[in-house]
Amino acid sequence: MNAYEQVYAHLLAQYGPQHWWPADSPFEVMVGTILTQNTAWTNVERAIAALRQRQALSVAALRDMDESELAALIRPAGYFNQKTRRLKTLATFLHARGVADAPEQLRNQGTLAELRRDLLALNGIGPETADSMLLYALDLPIFVIDTYTRRLFYRLGLLQADAPKNTAYDAIRQQFEAALPQDAVLFNEYHALIVAHAKVRCKKQPGVPGCSGCPLDCPARLQCTPSF
DNA sequence: TACCAGGAGAAAA
DNA sequence: TTTTCTCATGGT
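Output (structure tokens, whole complex):
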């Protein structure tokens, strides 16, 4: 068992299955990936709830909706003007691809690499958002790299350097994918567990060398000694 | 009050 | 090419 598999086993044992993504449909996942950009999930939930109340969680509804109304609905998620444009772009894309009624069918329209390229070409969809859609909405085996992933694996010494957010995304992703079986279910659970771990707050003696309060690194952002 | 939260794109250096 | 700025709300 390599280091990446050991970390996964550790996280799964500690936190259990996370059952991500928290959504009722693949399209809701796609909407959520945009709404959660640089935003706490609790705020996204408010926006999703408003969209559901308005029966707007469909490609057609988002395409047809007035921009000002859409912006008002997603206001709790922040960046509402930006995200309004991004949701409109996504809905227009899915409609153009002929999958407005079943967005999950997008997965049958090309290889993983082709679909990723097409999503990245859309304004407002970067690597993390595209990969979240591919993994959590389309069940395709691609590993999502986010801030939590970088921080945890840098602290564990499994990443060479704490690379800036705008660089080395694909290099880090490929490092994970090379070390693990190409399994969407595994990638799904692994990333969700990393997020679950990041949200935990250390309650023991953080900052003390050798602190055993955390199994991997200190979620309190302090310098507990990483251990397996 | 200041900072952070499941980023991305444009502008500036 | 790399770094900085902008977008914005809600919780702590």
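The CA atoms of residues 93 and 154 of chain A lie 36 Å apart.
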